[in-house]
Design goal:
2-enoyl-CoA Hydratase, Chain A, domain 1; 2 domains; 47% helix; 15% strand; globular; binds acetoacetyl-coenzyme A
Length: 264
């Protein structure tokens, strides 16, 4: 598949099972328009379908931005009826988040604003460069977050800070984002990609079915009660005990050797 608004590289750092997806509209600070969405849906579907790829990294091209939001120029031309009838923004969650069961990381290299911040929060976790800036400035445009910001940001950093960010539109720097649990780790700007690819390669080296299962369990914590979440966790654990990789993993530990994963 050839892309115009993103680039996709499989086995990005050697034969390591890591797919690197890069938003590639640096002239518009990687703003997210319908073409970008369509290409990302295809790229994530290809990643999900390719058994040789076991972790993905999403980043932005250029020095300045991961993504500076949904494309304001595209949105300015639409009527309310268009947004409603198209269920605008719906595919970000239904086609990318829900259908990508394998792990992926957002490597945030600069501005992650509005839809850019929301896209980063769709990832399983975020690694940020020192230059990263997060924000939900939609209020300045007379609107509000539409790709999950009011929900995912609040779950990540709590009501008080999320409310302040959405009501003032202010940007949060990388250090504050790490302190607030929005990002897993902050790294020097120049080593963002190298560090994130290394982390992705670590995940890609793990038993792949167990990786999907771990992701599913942690996500369940956001969508269910504790009681239901504990049941989901136990059931998934019990299913994993029937996998070939469970037998291999435990045998490898006892025999003091590396496991060789079948992914089932
Ligand atoms: N949509 C479309 N184009 C955008 C854009 C966006 N979200 N953000 C930046 N651009 C474009 C600019 O229009 C400009 O293009 P031109 O050269 O053709 O004029 C180019 O990218 C460079 O931007 P700036 O000149 O503004 O760069 P800067 O360094 O002076 O400022 C910035 C950087 C502070 C990030 C500024 O660009 C900005 O405020 N961008 C908009 C941020 C924003 O409001 N995002 C939320 C969008 S709404 C949304 O996302 C809804 C939702 O919930 C999903």
């Amino acid at each position: 598949m050839s892309y115009e608004n993103i680039t996709v590289e499989t086995n990005a750092s050697g034969n390591d099972g890591v797919t690197l997806i890069t938003l590639n509209r640096p002239q518009a600070l990687n703003a997210l328009n319908s073409e970008v969405l369509g290409e990302l849906i295809t790229a994530f579907a290809e990643y999900q379908a390719d058994a040789s790829q076991r972790c993905a990294v999403l980043t932005g091209s250029g020095e300045k931005a991961f993504a500076a939001g949904a494309d304001i120029k595209e949105m300015s031309e639409k009527a309310a009826a268009d947004f409603y009838l198209e269920d605008f923004f719906s595919p970000w969650t239904s086609e990318i988040v829900r259908k990508t069961r394998k792990p992926w990381i957002a490597a945030v290299n600069g501005f992650a604003l509005g839809g850019g911040c929301e896209l980063a929060m769709m990832a399983d976790f975020i690694i940020a460069s020192e230059n990263a800036k997060f924000g939900q400035p939609e209020i300045n445009l007379g609107v509000a977050p539409g790709m999950g910001g009011s929900q995912r940001l609040t779950k990540a950093i709590g009501k008080s800070k999320a409310m302040e960010m959405c009501l003032t539109g202010r940007m949060m720097g990388a250090e504050e984002a790490e302190r607030s649990n929005l990002v897993a780790r902050v790294v020097p700007h120049g080593s963002l990609l190298e560090e994130t690819l290394k982390t992705a390669a670590t995940i890609a080296s793990k038993p792949p079915m167990a990786a999907i299962a771990n992701k599913e369990m942690v996500n369940a914590a956001f969508e269910t009660s504790l009681e239901q979440g504990l049941i989901i966790e136990r059931r998934i654990f019990q299913i994993l005990t029937a996998s070939e990789d469970k037998h291999e993993g435990m045998a490898a530990f006892i025999e003091k050797r590396e496991g060789k994963w079948k992914g089932r």
